[in-house]
Amino acid sequence: MENGKKTSEFTENGIESLAKNKPVVYQILDENNNNIYTGVAKRGRVEERLKEHLPSGPDPIKGGTKVKIQQKASIDKALESEARIIKKVKPQKNKRGK
């Protein structure tokens, strides 16, 4: 996996195939590869956090077909990257203005 980046299907099986050993910034993409939601997950909580966004989860992001992750060295780096992406892309499902 180059640079800790990976894209997978936004399904339970797809999420389980993603790296979990570092904090990540994740982007949920729609069928047109548009970023509809960006978030962060702590090391060891990547799979759990993404599954919360599945249609059956407690914090669903509807319309997602793929998820793209980028591993970061620390949660602070992940949060900085998340804020930059949200400011630049303005994903439609992100409620907080960062």
Explain the layout of strands and helices.
Blueprint: E1 5-9, H1 12-16, E2 24-29, E3 35-41, H2 46-52, E4 66-71, H3 75-89
Antiparallel strand pairs: 1-4, 2-3, 2-4
Labels describing this entry:
single chain; 98 residues; alpha+beta; GIY-YIG endonuclease; 4-stranded antiparallel beta sheet; 28% helix; globular
Number of domains: 1
* Rg of Cα set: 12 Å
What is the CATH domain class?
A: Alpha Beta
Tally of helical segments: 3
Broad shape: globular
Helix coverage percent: 25-40%
Give start-end ranges of low-pLDDT stretches.
none
Structural class: alpha+beta
Notes on the structure:
The protein is built from 3 helices and 4 strands; from the N terminus they run βαββαβα. It has 98 residues and is α+β, with helices and mostly antiparallel strands. It has one domain (2-89): GIY-YIG endonuclease. Strands 1-4-2-3 form a 4-stranded antiparallel beta sheet. β2 and β3 (35-41) form a beta hairpin.
In summary, what is this structure?
The protein is an alpha+beta fold.
